[in-house]
């Protein structure tokens, strides 16, 4: 029998975690451990989150971070094109590199120490 369910997709966690929990009799967890680890690795308590638009708009990672440490600064960066490019197989070409650079620049300008890749695609 199933003893635990892990939803290994940040976007699905945001959209459906509560609904799934209501419908099953086993514990259900999402994927927020990366945020906790990021905080523990950041001396300045300044972290960045790269995720899908839905995940960023939910602020789930920011909420988790603030539950762990109310002094942490969390900068969220939506990455609307990245998962699609990866799904299409653009792993080693300039389009992914250019998009990653575009998404990372705003985070790096804030002198973050740790970036959480808040999507299971990247």
TrEMBL record:
Keyword Isomerase: yes
Keywords: Isomerase
BP GO terms, sorted: peptidoglycan biosynthetic process
GO MF entries: amino-acid racemase activity
InterPro entries for the chain: Asp/Glu/hydantoin_racemase (IPR015942), Asp/Glu_race (IPR001920)
Keyword Isomerase listed: yes
Pfam families: Asp_Glu_race
Protein name: Glutamate racemase
Source organism: human gut metagenome
